[in-house]
Every structure is written in structure tokens, then in C-alpha cells.
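Exercise 3.2. Students should predict the tertiary structure of the chain below and write it as C-alpha cells, then compare their answer with the key that follows.

Predict this chain's 3D structure.
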Amino acid sequence: MKENNLTIHQTDERMFFLSRLLCKTQFATPTHVFAPNINVDVNALSEIPDGANVVLGKCTDEAAALAECRGISLFNIMKDEKFQAVNSRLTAEGALMAMIEHSPKSIADCYVLVLGFGRMGAAVAKLLNKLDIKLDIATTSSLRPAYAFANNVIPMHGFDFSAYDIIINTVPLAVVKDVDLMTMKKDTVYIDLASRPAINLEYAKYLEIDADIYPALPAKTCPYSAAMAMQEYITEVIK
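Answer key:
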């Protein structure tokens, strides 16, 4: 534990910047901070003192039960509306960087499909729309808002991917069938931003599609800004 009663569990560059941003902030109660993408388990809590504050993004049921027994207060940053909005925007920017890095085409020449129109899908669509990139959205709800950003809004099933250069998934469900994958072009780029991929990644790679899951993009592409978003949440909820 540091002199200011704060321990930042270092797992990526974002947490390094967070440590610098909070180094002069004093905490009355021992406070531990984990990266939002880390699933905190019982072992992680074993070294944390009773009555401490813990900031995290997710934890196991066993860890939550242990925390309650030991008087450890859990603050879930991923349930905060303000943080989610900033995190979605930063993730969308990271997805744009992945598009530029992986696509053989200029993004101005790409036809993009975004799967899902929740908070993350909307952030991606809004950013791409600002760049005047041709865009379709697949969603089962929010049809009218989706049309504000997309050329077309299509259902979340029976996909024909043959028209698209880039596909960005934001839905944590396996909504794409293997037979749908066969409609992708060889140079299609598939970027998955969800906690669970929408496609069979192994089969996609067998088909020689550039497909991967991109977890915790803000920590990789804009770690300082990601740390600032965490700092704002922490200083607001822990006095």
C-alpha cells in the first residue's frame, strides 16, 4: 500500500498513467484499483485488507461473496453511465485505428457493417458517420435511431457479407453462422469489440479472413485518455 492509501494493480499502460494521475490524491480508506477488463477473483482479493475499497470492472460471484463477508466495498466502474459513454467513444476510436491498420483499402473506400446498435455500436456508427464512411447497421431494435447513421439497417440473421470490406461486431452473442462466414470476401477485415465473438474465429481464420477479437482497446490505443476516464470516476465515488 502506498502512502496515499492507493494501490493500482498494473496490467497495462492505462494503469501506469492512472497511477501517475492519482499519485497525489489521498484516500482515507485503503483503495485498490483493477483494470476494467480484469475479472477479479478470490485469489486477487486475498491480499486486500478487510474494509478496503476496490474499484473494478467485473468479478466472480465467489469474489463478490468474499468481499461482502470481509467488509470490502466493490465499486463497479462498468456500471457507471458516464464512464461507459467515454469508454465506448475511446473504443470506437481504437476500432478506427484497427480498420486503418488492417484494411488494404483507404477507409474512405470501405463499406462497413456494424453488428449491434447498443452503446458501443452507436459510438462506432457515430464516429464512422462523421468521417462520411459508407455504413450499414445490423440490429434487432432501435431501428429509427440506427437509420440516422446508416445507409441501410438490416436484421441480425441470415447475413450476406459479400458487399462489406470491414465488419465490426459489438454484440456479445454468437449471432453469425458458419455458412454466413462463407459470404465474406478474402480481404474482409472482421473486428470484434464484444466480450464474446459473434463468429467462429477459428473457422474464419481457416477461410483466411483477417478476423480477431480486440479487447480493452482504449488501454492499447489511447491509454492516457482511458486513465483520465478512470480517474474521474474514482475521485467522484471514493471520497
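Discussion points: Residues 156 and 236 are 38 Å apart (CA to CA). The two ends are 18 Å apart (CA to CA).
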